Amino acid sequence: MVTSKKTALAHSITTVILTFLGALWVVPILWTMYQSLRPYGEVLKYGSFSVAKTLNFQNYYTAIVQSEMWRYFINAVVVAVPAVLLTLFLASMVAFVVSRYSFAFNIPLLMLFTAGNLLPAQLVFIPLYRIYLAIPVPHFINENGVLYDTQLGLILIHVAFQMGFATFVLSNYMKTIPKEISESALVDGASVWVHYSKIMLPLLRPALASLGVLMTTWIYNDFFWSVALLKTGNKRPITAALNNLQGEFFKDYNLLAAGATLAFIPTLIVFFALRRQFVAGLTLGSTKG
Amino acid sequence: MSTTRTDLTTATGAKAPRRRRRRSNFTKKDRAVLFGLVGLPTVLHVLFVWIPAILTVLLSFTFWDGIGGVKNIHWAGFQNYSQIFSLYEAFPKALRNNALWLGFFAFVPTPLGILLAYFIDKNLKGSKFYQTAFYLPMVLSLAVTGIVWDYVFRTNGLVNSILGDTNSESAISWFGDPHKNIWVVLGIASWRHIGYVMLLYLAGMKAVDPSLHEAAGIDGASDWYTFRKVVFPSLRPVNVIIIVVTVIDSLRAFDLVFIINRGRNGLELLGVLVYENIFGESSRIGWGAALATMLFLMSIIPIMVYLYQTFKADE
Questions:
Q1: Of A17, A115, A122, the CB nearest to B307
Q2: CA of B36: how far to CAs of A202, A216, B29, B114, in Å?
Q3: What helix, strand, coil percent values describe chain A, rounded to 5?
Q4: What letter does residue A146 receive in the DSSP assignment?
Q5: What digits encode the pLDDT tens for the residues B83-117?
Q6: How far is B186 from chain A (nearest CA, A)?
Q7: d(Cα A257, Cα A259) in Å, to the nearest integer?
């Protein structure tokens, strides 16, 4: 291939434009982080757009210790970890059956799951809210004795919803695993359970990892369900808790900047550490089919 | 992707004759296990997603203040709908904003994301950096996104500082002005959407057979021409998915405006109105359900398109 002067010039222009755009893209994030390191008093005096005289982690200390933000991180873990594990487990079961056996219900079932995942949450939550108010739970789970306003209820709806997406992705993935592997197992007389748990599940590991990373981020980032199904502020995971913190930190915007930064730092770490899984998870669900 | 397709068809084609033999081989225990593997997840999904969805549609034809039990539900026919259309002031605003959201997304961030994917795919030097930058907003929650951008657009924020007026009396109120705020929000939402479209497109472009590119190159076609005439048409499945994602995201929009001002004063959206009718000062379940049903009716078309696109190869 011959690279002419014209294409070389076009290439450098694109590089410049893309670099500029890329830099522009991260400005809001960096700007918020910058504000989070400054004391509010100084910003009041010199304005937010000024060279910092003081840069420290005081706001972070205040947010975590005095405002007890650590509590919301624990809530996030308590909700996201069981929800993701349960979703992956249940979805892999359905995906296994529909991709390894040919039953008449396979395609309709997959369609049901896939369409369910695409329904607007607003359509589901009105009766769900009433149902949650009517389902009794033991008092050690909720002192009011109902499923509403419990983290268990939040976990269940995440599982029910995300399962649709996970089943679809996992069944697509499983279809790419050669049939011969299953056949040799069946010749050896493996039962359905052994076929699923000992043969297929280990082969699913890469897809489970990608999906796990993606769904942890989604559930961690969920706002709607946590706000709708958890009334008590102290029970809310960090993303939804920002809604209360916004009110609490109303008078100190730099403290809120620290709170917001704390909320997004875990997702940034996950993204940088497991970027490949994250991207793979997103594309697995959309471009295959 | 084309290889996956053919694999699938041959696999299903070869499977048919084997089926009868295998089914008769199921022991009682195997049958029970199969039943459990499919049954348990399906029951959970139907119970928590589909049944509430159907109940919402039914509730939209009733009056219920939500205070009394189920006994206080009265048949209303289409009255909730006619009331919403004639009495509910926020409804036309929300409808307009959702339509605006959809139109804007379709014509601005979606093509921009495709364009970025095209340039990044071509320009490999430093592409890691831009890709990372454009993907970043996707990992932030919409709630965090709202807060982060508040520092950019608030009265004494970055934009007004650059414009040189941060006085609370005279400076531009980007979120407070009902004629401006929806545009600001659309810009912020695009910040996220562009990266998503780009990601889907880049993945799709990697799957395009390189020999297509080469053939076009030998014929002396320009890059842009090749993209338009060869790559773009071969990415039809990705295009359909992007359209579906764009429509559904525009209908579902909630978090961003809710964290900014609870979806009021120019930022009304259907998704927020549903919430307000259930948790707001006056609880009007019928109105909320009717609004949610309208959202549902609008989502049916993209959902059907998606299902058709996804499952037609398997049939």
A1: A115
A2: 20, 26, 11, 44
A3: 75, 0, 20
A4: B
A5: 999 999 999 999 999 999 999 999 999 999 999 99
A6: 15
A7: 5
Same domain? For A10 and A142 the reply is: no
Assembly ipTM = 0.90
CA torsion, ordered B44, B46, B52, B57, to nearest 10 deg = 180
Residue B99 confidence (pLDDT) = 95
Provide, as residue numbers in chain B, all residues whose Cβ is less than 8 Å from the Cβ of A220: 141
Residues A154 and A257 in one domain: yes
Count of domains for chain A:
2
Q: How many domains does chain B have?
A: 1
Contacting residues of A for B124, CB less than 8 Å apart = none
In a domain, B35, yes or no: no
Residues A117 and A245 in one domain: yes
Domain boundaries, position B197: 86-311
CA distances from A29 to A34, A234, B158, B178 (A): 9, 27, 12, 25
State mean pLDDT over B152-163: 90
Residue type, B165: D
User: Which residue, chain included where needed, has tokens 């982060």?
Assistant: B148
- Among A210, A161, A177, which Cα is nearest to A99's? A177
pLDDT greater than 80 at residue B143: yes
Judged by CB atoms closer than 8 Å, whether chains meet at B49 and A116 is answered as yes
- Structural domain harbouring A281: 65-287
> For chains A and B, what is the number of CB pairs under 8 angstroms?
313
Give strand pairing partners of A146.
Answer: A136
Measured between CB atoms, does A231 come within 8 Å of chain B? no
